[in-house]
Design a protein that fits this description.
The protein is mostly helical. It has one domain (1-72). It is 46% helix and 0% strand. It has two helices and no strands. The longest helix has 29 residues, at 43-71. The mean pLDDT is 75.
Length: 72
Amino acid sequence: MADGTCSFCGDTTVYFFPGGLCVACTGKAARIRLAETLKQQSNELTAFDASVGTMHAAARRSEMAVAKVQQH
């Protein structure tokens, strides 16, 4: 994420969601994290954001795997 790439797919992106994921790997329901608009959050909220990002990434991985299997 520090280099501007998604932590899951590696695509270059400007907007990051919790967990350092791009919009394609997270889904549109997630909250966009922009460095200039971040407010100080509690540790609990930060941990929750990370867990939601991980959950979305797992769901996205499953969707991508199903699509790949259906192609072959």
